[in-house]
Amino acid sequence: MTQLLDATEQRVYPTDEELLHRVLTPYRAKRCEYLTSATVVLKGAAEAAAEDGARLSADCSFLIPESCYIDDTGHFNSVEFNICFNQMAYYLVAKAVKESLIEPFSRWTIEEFWTRQLGDIFITDFRSSFRSAMSGRHFRGRIEIADIADWDGNDLRDALVMLRTRCHYWDEQGGESHGEIGAAITNPPEK
Q1: Which domain, by its residues, includes 118?
Q2: Residue 134 in contact with residue 76, Cβ under 8 Å?
Q3: d(Cα 61, Cα 84) in Å, to the nearest integer?
Q4: H helices within 117-185, ranges in order?
Q5: Which residues neighbour 130 within 8 Å (Cβ) at sequence distance 6 or greater?
Q6: Nearest residue to 146 via CA among 130, 169, 162
Q7: Are 181 and 126 in contact (CB under 8 A)?
Q8: 172, part of any domain
Q9: CATH of residue 53
Q10: Residue from 153, 16, 31 nearest 90 by CA
Q11: Segment (H or E) for 85
Q12: What is the pLDDT of residues 24-80, one digit of tens each?
């Protein structure tokens, strides 16, 4: 049975250090672990889907002491945008699974998420915009799941979970960037 929350109510989940560490484990070097904290917020209907009024987001902090792939450019760039997005998205979905926050993730086990984290999650559409130059060292970010579609498999198509997300990054000097990213998760657990 779905427990409904008043539209103004929200549940807040502070950073789960153990979960964050596990989410970042696939990154080969410690210097590639940019996400330092993530507070997850659920607004609306608990254990429901986004189309039923639930809104799931995470407010995040990042630290990039040095680029993991290029000499210092002095600013946040598109590669770092993508890496930070991946880390936010992995954490948000893992937390949704662990806490049974929103459909379809409330049907998964955390072990099923770990199995799917790298090989079954694909970015399908990536759009980013840089409004003003942003520091590439200390900054904040936010990710929100805007829409979820849980598609059953059939003879023509495998089962999929489709996500549409929005993200925004900013620093204390007024730099900012934002994006809209679509993702697909293949081989979701059966209902």
Answers
A1: 10-186
A2: yes
A3: 10
A4: none
A5: 76, 78, 176, 177
A6: 162
A7: yes
A8: yes
A9: 3.10.129.30
A10: 16
A11: helix 78-98
A12: 999 988 888 999 999 999 997 554 455 556 799 999 999 988 776 666 666 788 999
Tokens 């153990």 locate to: 18
Strand (E) positions, the chain? 10-13, 35-43, 55-63, 121-132, 138-151, 160-170, 176-186
Residue 112 lies inside a defined structural domain of this protein: yes
Other CB atoms closer than 10 Å to residue 114's CB: what's the count? Answer: 15
The pTM (predicted TM-score) of the whole model is 0.89
Looking at the 3D structure of the chain, how many domains does it have? 1
In single-letter form, the type of residue at position 182 comes to G
**Does residue 88 contact residue 39 with C-beta atoms inside 8 Å?**
no
Question: Other CB atoms closer than 10 Å to residue 191's CB: what's the count?
Answer: 9
pLDDT per residue over 103-145, tens digit each?
Answer: 999 999 999 999 999 999 999 999 999 989 888 789 999 999 9
Q: Quick check: 66 and 72 in contact, CB under 8 A?
A: yes
Specify if 2 maps to a domain: no
Q: Which residues contact 52 (CB under 8 A, 6 or more apart)?
A: 2, 44, 45
